[in-house]
Amino acid sequence: MALDGVVIANVVSELNEKLLNGRISKVYQPENDELLLVIKNNRGTYKLVLSAQASLPLLYLTDENKTNPMTPPNFCMFLRKHIGSGKIIKITQPNFERIVEFHIEHLNELGDLCTKRLIIEIMGRHSNIIFCDDHLILESIKHISHNISSVREVLPGREYVYPPNQNKKNPLEISDNDFKNIFVNNTQPVYKAIYTSLNGISPLIAQEICFRAQIDANHNAKDLDSDEIELLLTAFTTIMMKVKNNVFEPSIYYQNDMPTDFSGFKLDSLSALNSEVYDSISTVLQDFYGSKAILGRIKQKSTDIRKILSNALERSYKKYDLQVKQLQDTSKREQCKLYGELILSNAYTIKQGQTQVDVLNYYDNTTINIPLDPTLTAAQNSKKYYDRYNKLKRTYEALNTQVEETKKELAHLESINNALDFADKEDDLIHIKKELIEYGYIKKKLKEKKTNNLPSHPIHYISSDGYDIYVGKNNAQNDYLSFKFASNNDWWFHTKDFPGSHVIVKSKGDELPDKTLEEAAAVAAYYSKARQSSKVSVDYTLKKHLKKPNGSKPGFVIYHTNYSMLADPSIKGLELVTN
């Protein structure tokens, strides 16, 4: 679901509590459409994220750090100049819209006290962050010209006007009569009549109003009687009073352990679902949207790498198919050798000019028909078949080597592709790109940013029996875990027939419980290309049985002693350790 006016009101309430009268100490712009403000207030330091990402605009407080570009973008530099050390004197939500305004007091170049507005509009693909002096736009994170939007321009020097509200009313100010009039001659379902008539009311909140009034949300609005409308008004007023009085209970609702909805207060209409109440709406937004936002960024930034990887895989599969076909064509080599041998042993009976000959195959006592070149003697025909045999034999031997090399290349590319599917940090992409450069899939630039051998930590879980389980997120981490981190008596897991992560279980010198072995196998299946399968075959063995051939590609190992089990891809029941 999207952020609605109720959630924004909850956010504004929290920001007023924590940031009001605070000073902006730092301004960062980690993404083209995202700001990070560091604010000091009441001896505390807060990090505020303002994201105008088209697919997932957000506004929340966070404890996490973000990677910033080496050179700050122009919008970031502009804000640093004008509101660096500025004091936040007011935070508002105009007209109950999905808009938050920060009124910031600062000294201008002449030392005079001035007030500016930093406005974030959370409106899907129309989201923006705009910096204004009164009603004049000074700058914005996205420039919207008349060519892009005929409704309003967002450009420096233009007057700032609020987005059109489609004649919706402010639910915090609407009179009782105006609320009742929403349903007069309205042929829409009741819940739709509510959210299409009021600012900031989402379908979820509209359905909650209907539920509390015990009215069918899909009932035709114009068919409501006066008593039913009174019930709706009572439910609506109760909810709006909570917003006015800042009485919030930020909550997330779960179905089958998956978060499905969230709100600024508990919803009676979702009481059948499991729910969790939080102390902070920012934590709700981070838990509900945080991973999606990160994955969205990673997916966006990995587009070029995915294209390069996809092209490399396509070329390699075509090469492999061609080599296999050519290898099949060499299957007649032994027949050519036999023909040459039988012609030579029967040369005295063969006359020049014959187009074929029937001879006894003394290997199986059958008669075999051999085609002949009539222009050649028996010895020459024999030599021709031997030459053909030797050529096919050389081709077979060469192709066998080439096919094995191509299979290794495909396995390497598929392992990188699998690592890309599980990349959740920018450092993961940097390491994947480094590996592609190292093996010639990406051209190396003259000045390449240095990266660590292990730029991010492996994924770390604790099993239900208390054993540490580590998962490699890329081939460099796979090699590190398997050959540097693991001890000889630790256990190693990997999917049998699919690319996947190396999984190490630290044994502590114990014999691992069956439950931990099963959980580790499930983790190996989960972090593999077989993640969507129901049952996956997983090999496991002690680390001391692993070998890495000289010159082999990253992540490649061999082993001759192992066990196998079928596992369901899963990480349920495991405790994730955050580094």
Automatic annotation (TrEMBL):
Task: Record the organism.
Answer: Natranaerovirga hydrolytica
Q: Which family does it belong to?
A: Belongs to the NEMF family.
The GO biological-process annotations, alphabetized, read as: rescue of stalled ribosome
Question: Which keywords does UniProt give here?
Answer: Coiled coil, Protein biosynthesis, RNA-binding, rRNA-binding, tRNA-binding
Q: Name one GO molecular function term.
A: rRNA binding
Q: Which InterPro entries match?
A: NFACT_RNA-bd, Ribosomal_uS13-like_H2TH, RQC_Subunit_NEMF, RqcH_bacterial
Q: What is its biological role?
A: Key component of the ribosome quality control system (RQC), a ribosome-associated complex that mediates the extraction of incompletely synthesized nascent chains from stalled ribosomes and their subsequent degradation. RqcH recruits Ala-charged tRNA, and with RqcP directs the elongation of stalled nascent chains on 50S ribosomal subunits, leading to non-templated C-terminal alanine extensions (Ala tail). The Ala tail promotes nascent chain degradation. May add between 1 and at least 8 Ala residues. Binds to stalled 50S ribosomal subunits.
Question: Does the record's keyword annotation contain Coiled coil?
Answer: yes
Q: Which residues form a coiled coil?
A: 382-416
What is its quaternary makeup? Associates with stalled 50S ribosomal subunits. Binds to RqcP.
Matching Pfam families = NFACT-R_1, NFACT_N
Q: What is this protein called?
A: Rqc2 homolog RqcH
What Gene Ontology cellular component terms go with this record?
RQC complex
Per UniProt, residues of the NFACT RNA-binding domain are 460-551
